[in-house]
Amino acid sequence: MHFGHAAWMRQQGKWRELMVVSFKRLAKRLACATALAGLAMTTMAAAADIKIGIVAPMTGQLASEGQDMENAVKMAIDAVNAKGGVNGDKIITTTADDACDPQQAVTAGSKLVSEGVTAIVGGYCSGAVLPTLKIYGDAGIPFVIIGANSTKLVAANQGNAFLANSTGDMQATTAVELFKKNGYKKIAVVDEGDAYSSDLAKLTAEAFKGEGGEIAAKETTTAGEQDYSAVVTKIKASGADAVFWTAYHAGGALLTKQLRQAGFQGGIVLGDGNNSPEYLEIAGSAGEGVYLLSPPTVDLLSGAADFKAKYKETYGRDAGAYAALSYDVGDLIADAITRAKSADQKAIIEALKASDLKGLAGEIKFTDKNTLQTSNFRPVIAKGGKWVAVE
Amino acid sequence: MTLDLLIQQLVNGLIVGSFYALIALGYSMVFGVIKLLNFAHGDIYMNGAFVGLIVFSFVGIWVGNGWLGVVCALLVSMLVVGLLGVVIERFAYRPMRNAPRLSILITALGASMVLNGTALALTGGRHYAFNTDLGFAGIDISTVHITYTQMVLVAASIALMAGMQAFVSRTMYGKAMRAVSIDMGASRLMGIDVDRVIALTFFMGSALAAGGGVMAGAYYGSVHFFMGFIMGLKAFTAAVIGGIGSVPGAMLGGLLLGLLEAFGSSLPFVGSEWRDVFVFGTLILFLVFKPTGLLGRSVVERV
């Protein structure tokens, strides 16, 4: 789930990344995995340590994100160990590479299960996480998913898995909160007619009406078209206080420009599909002051400055988009084991269900479906050609 | 619908319609002369926008991002892409000129894919910003806001189209074009260099499309490898509505299509998602009841 990619990729569960793995890389990866496994066996494990598995893409196109996840989880665990560990035991970690590939993920998952880990955290690509849910479920291992957020994961969950990232549809909640905070009473919702953007438009419209708001206009544009003037005219005439664009950055930039060109003074709010530097480039000065609903990427979290600095100091590189959330999940699992008062996996799952953690990326509390109670999408605003956090 | 809204939609329709007309004109000219539906025309429009962006970024260093830069980009792009049209005709269409109509139609699809795929490979599918300092200043008539840029764009496309019409109806080359479009064999017997006339037709049609591409790029502020697809479709529709093969018909068809779209978005009782149903429904009605379009003459099929 990287910064700058179109949102449909996230929505469709990042299936697409799976296709890029070459045989050469596969061979390299297998060699690495074998070597690591051997190393792990020889060096690990004083008997009382609690072992946590980290599963993430350590090779392939998304290796950088996977490295971030591993680093950040370890950072959280190290902090816990430095304070005396959990229930008097130290936590150790072992990492398995899923390469964001379903087959590789199954191998990695089986490896972690056979190593006898107490719990597993990680998972970036929904496509790679999906087939492992059964493995961890059958083994009864608590599994906290960090990045992957397809709604398909919710359906396939056997009760032991927890989604620490908001599913895409929770964006509507954040949108409505922002509308209310900014005092918008009448909203024009514009989508591009595809499944993702029209779903988000519909959910947001329903949620806003439920809160007493008014939907002044609900418009649809054609993807690939350049002229939105007719829709812009309708929006202006509808008397909307603000426009919510639910589709992607190319159309978003054009719409923003044409709204401002037509003299529309109201607010403009964009869905997470516009989280791209291209949006700001194309919209130019018309993009100033536009709101974007962003996933909790580390650059946009106001409270993560210390974390960012410490991460850079520890690992010699900048914290990537999902580092903060990964850190939170490291904390979360240590917290759950502490509250379970044992390494018993059933007790840890029960403890996870009762989680109430205020992390860097937001609050982590689970619903009865083990998804986040509150959306972790957050509004950011375009200032001086950059996205900055809304204070 | 209030009067202001009506006027605003009228203005919107005229602006987008003048782009359609410009592209439809090239479509129609090529069809008129060699009876080929040049599916690559939309991609030529896209290429024009990219060439324009490159020139604009380059001359922008000296002349800034204002009107002068846009005019330079427009002229250079029209020349370069006009020549590209000639090259495409020479290598893709001329060898097929006596082949069955279906073969040349498929060649045109192939040419479209080559242009589109090349642009995709070179740009990596990115959307490029075409940022000008043209600004949003303009005049206000009650709540209707018309920017100076919009006025200049409409005037420029009308001037280009009027120039083209004058060329076709007043000059010897124009006369030769019309002769070739009526009967290619007889024209050759009369001593007209048919190959040259056809090359000229492609040059002019492609140059117009490139001009449209640069203006659209500068006006909407973004350029993308896929931008020609919908535009090609719309231009084809406009050409059919106006009467394919007719120069004034293409202009009329383009403007009419723009207006249909603007008002199609504001249909009573239904949302803007019905616009394309309305527009392309109209196209089907035209094809059924008046296949020659508004100003077209019936074409006698020569086998």
From TrEMBL, chain A:
The keyword GTP-binding does not apply. The keyword Transport applies. Keywords: Amino-acid transport, Plasmid, Receptor, Signal, Transport. It comes from the Bacteria. Residues 50-374 form the Leucine-binding protein domain. SUPFAM superfamilies: Periplasmic binding protein-like I (SSF53822). InterPro entries: Leu-bd, Leu_Ile_Val-bd, Peripla_BP_I. GO terms for biological process: amino acid transport. Residues 1-47 form the signal peptide. Belongs to the leucine-binding protein family. This is Extracellular ligand-binding receptor.
From TrEMBL, chain B:
One of its GO terms (molecular function) is L-valine transmembrane transporter activity. One of its GO terms (biological process) is L-isoleucine import across plasma membrane. The chain crosses the membrane at residues 14-37, 44-62, 68-92, 104-125, 145-168, 197-219, 277-296. It is a multi-pass membrane protein. GO terms for cellular component: plasma membrane. Belongs to the binding-protein-dependent transport system permease family. LivHM subfamily. The lineage of its organism: Bacteria, Pseudomonadati, Pseudomonadota, Alphaproteobacteria, Hyphomicrobiales. This is Branched-chain amino acid ABC transporter permease. Keywords: Amino-acid transport, Cell inner membrane, Cell membrane, Membrane, Transmembrane, Transmembrane helix, Transport. CDD domains: TM_PBP1_LivH_like. It comes from the Bacteria. It comes from Mesorhizobium japonicum.
